[in-house]
Please model this.
Amino acid sequence: MTVAGLMFCTAFLVCQLIGTVFICMAPKKKIAHYCWPRLVLITGLLICGVIALVVMCLYFSGKSLAMNNALFAVYEFFFDDKMSQADRQHVSKDLKIYAGAFFALIIVFVLYTLFELLLLRKMYNELKKGEFHPVSTQTSQAKYLSDAKSDPKSGAFQEPSAPPAFNPEFGAGKA
Model:
């Protein structure tokens, strides 16, 4: 179990580092897509925070006895130690205090993560406005081919003629 936790934390740290490096590079390189790793990470953290918030709401809405009994069963299974009724009551009071503190902490975390997600989306949209987007060549080639005329004798395409330059002041002698 410890190895799995260590691997999860290591993978999470690597994801955090990748997201941080790319979010630092995004404004310098002016590439909006460098925001994606951090956006995905923050969205995942927001989802996890909302799930924890729902669990805490369930805990305080009357499911605390069932959740405490499940926690005691897990404790007794893994540590092979039976808890007395007095110990269960004492631990239940402590769990309620810890749950209240965790509930306040998770509310702050979800609000912070939501704020960070909104700021990151704003940064992504700002970078996307100034980013170079190449013109699609397929639509311009289709227009070019539709403007081209084919020579009926040889079947070859002739270049479409460019429209003449237009200068409204040419005849007035101002040009």
User: Anything to note?
Assistant: The radius of gyration is 32 Å.
